[in-house]
Structures are given as C-alpha cells and as structure tokens.
Amino acid sequence: MQRSWIESANSAETHFPLQNLPYGAFVPPGDDLPRCCIAIGDFLFDAHEAEFDGLLDIDGLPIAILGNWNTLMAHGPRIWAAFRARLTELFSEGAPEQEAVRKHLHPLSDAQLAMPLDVRGYTDFYAGKHHATNVGTMFRGAENALPPNWLSIPIGYNGRASSVVVSGTPVRRPWGQLKAPDAELPVFAPCKRLDFELEMGAVVGQPSEGMVSVGKADEMIFGYVLLNDWSARDIQAWEYQPLGPFQSKATATTISPWIVPKAALEPFRVPTPDRERALLPYLEEPGPMLYDIQLEATLAPEGKAPTVITRTNYREMYYSAAQQLAHHTTSGCPMEVGDLLGSGTISGPERGNRGSLLELSWGGKEPLTLDAGEARSFLEDGDTLTLTGWAQGEGYRIGFGQCSGTVLAAHTDPTDAGG
Ligand code: CA
Fold first, then answer.
1. CB contact set of 243 (below 8 Å; sequence gap of 6+)
2. C-beta of residue 310 within 8 angstroms of C-beta of residue 318
C-alpha cells in the first residue's frame, strides 16, 4: 500500500491515512475567515495557502481559495479526480515537494474547524428499515409500523440548511408546543424529549436539471459526512401529522468537519438489501451503492466519561443516497452544488444497534444506564453526544473524525434568546 512521508498518516488507527484525504475548513488563530484544508495523519494541510504557493494548480482553476469546498465541487468529477491525484502525489513517500508542503501543515489537535461546505439545501430521508419499523411500532402499532408507501419510495422531507452546523457547535434545547397523550390541549414549554439521530449525509457536488438516473445520481455525489439530526420527540409527536416534522427537526443538524470523498470509499461499496417489493425501474441501482461504514455513538454527561450507547453500520440502509437523490429529481426539482441529503436514522437489527434514544429507551419505557451509573431516556442539559465512524480496510481506516454537540439548557424566556 502507498505510504506517506507524514508518519502519523501510516498508522493503522488514524482516520486520515493517505487513502482518505477528506475535505475540511479551519479558522487560523487570530483570523476570522475559514480556510479550506485537508486532513492527513495528525495534521491539517492549509490548502488555501498551498494554492497561493502554486502547489495545487489544476488547469489554472481556482479550487481552495474560498472558505469552503463548493468551488471544487462545481468543477465536476474530472477535476475532483485530478485534484485528489495531486494531493496524493504531494503526501506520498518520496514526494519532491516535501519541504514546500511541510510549511502548510498544522497540528490537527488544536485546530478550530469550520463548515467544510456552504449547505445550499438540506433534505432528510427516512430510509432505514429497522428505524422506520421501530418508530412505527411505537407510534402506530406493529401491524402498521411501515407506512404503505415505505417499500416503494425513499420518503423524506425538506429540512433547513440554515441550522446545519459543524461538530463542536453547542445545541440549545428548543421550546415548542407539547401535548401529553392524555392532555386535551398543548402547552408551550422547553422540549423534554431531546434526541439524536445517527445518520450519514451525502454531499451533492453537481447540479441537476430535470430527472437523473440512479447511476448519474451516484456520479453527482462528491462525498459523505457523519450527520446528527437532533430531534425534539415531544414536539414531533404533536406536530407531525399530516405534513411531517417541522420545528422538531429545525433546531440543529450537526455534521462532521470532514467530507470524505466518494473516491476514498470505493473499496467499501456494498449492495442495498434484497427488495421486499419490486422497485419501480427508475429506482433500480446499476451496482452497489451503499458502503460498509462502522458507526457508533457515545453519550457523556457533563464532566463524565463517554459511554458507547450504540454501534451500527451504514450498510443497514434500505435505500442508498444515489436512490434518494434520483428520487429527489423526479419532480424536476433542481439539485444544487452543496445540497446535503440525510440518510435517515441508521439502526441495525438488535437493541444495541439502534440509532436514536427514542428506540434505545423504547419511547422512554426502558432507560439506558450509562457507565457512570446515570440513567437516560432522552438527552439532558450538559450531555455531549458524539458520533464517529470509519470504513475498515486491510491495515488502514477511512475515518470521518467526530460529529459532536453538547446540549445547552433552554433559555428561560424563549423570546429573549439573544440571537
Ligand atoms: Ca432524521
């Protein structure tokens, strides 16, 4: 396997070997403006400065000089491949540019990371069958668990791009309308059932005009991130019929700071599961479109060590991101560079593989016990929820880093949120 002259990139445990080279952004100390960077071993590579130094010239195109990767994405798959090949060259053992590259390396450990892309639109799907079955069983009973359309359509809703935030951003507990099942009328109060959802996000790197096939949709995907779709379950339960979630999902969506390029995940492609109902031809996949990515979530109460509360895998999805994207275009809806598609919660078949607290605590009826002894049905103020994930190769990992957020107490007066 190709090795790097950056020794930490050759470790079997690093998330960022030479074979990954994910796209991020950081804010340099004493500066306000984020810059594009690449993760390699224990370092970030300042791609913005390196481009000014002439190290990253691809056909004279601007690529990393703005604060996010939308510019590169807009250039399309040929330039994505050429840019990645150039990065691989610069970091490979024996690269003649070592000294020039070294000037732009900074320790990752103390970097302030920023949003790696300008999110243009955010759509969240509901494409994990274990999750849809668990939630449906709790809300509608086992016999009606899956909605009638579920085996035909990768169902989703249009979410908010404005509240997609990078890992490390605190999440304020929202207020909302809550109605207890036995109450006649709702009250307006802070959410009591704040939850996470373990998902993957697909980053759309090419625009569409009209409908695209699943194969074409796969080509349009630039890369993947970890995604936590924070969910206010009590607000959701009262508001969701008939138009789906609205305020319950609008508070925040956290993504990992690194967009792992689709090219780095190629060796880990796996097929979607056998279809239980034949799909309409426009949703058929020309090849394997899911990925074998191990995922886990930890929960750490304030000042306490984290406990792993679930382990699952992206291959548990029923629909792939390419199918979701193809379906998204059937209406003629134009997709844009920087659109983000949430996979839907990724639960596996067993209790220990459930991707949300709603499922792990079975609606609050079976609280979890954390390693430090605390019980949790839903998130409490001060809790830190962290997702991590990686594809395991032979002696290396393609990692996503961490996707983390800490819950802040609700404001005492919701109209005085201070911005
Ligand atoms: Ca979701």
1. none
2. no
Over residues 206-218, mean pLDDT: 98
Pairing of β 23-27 and β 112-114: antiparallel
- The sign of the CA dihedral 405, 411, 414, 419 is negative
Ligand 1 mean position, distance from CA 18 (Å): 32
* Distance separating alpha carbons of residues 287 and 264, to the nearest angstrom: 17
Biggest distance spanned by C-alpha atoms of the chain: 73
Going from the Cα of 257 to the center of ligand 1, the distance in angstroms, rounded, reads 19
- pLDDT tens readout for residues 346-372: 999 999 999 999 999 999 999 999 999
pTM metric for this prediction: 0.97
State in Å: Cα 25 to ligand 1 middle. Answer: 25
pLDDT (0 to 100) of residue 170? 98
Type of residue found at 288: P
9 versus 418: the higher-pLDDT residue is 9
**Residues involved in catalysis:** 131
- Residue 418 confidence (pLDDT): 57
CA of 11 to the centre of ligand 1 (A): 34
> What is the CB neighbour count within 10 angstroms for residue 153?
20
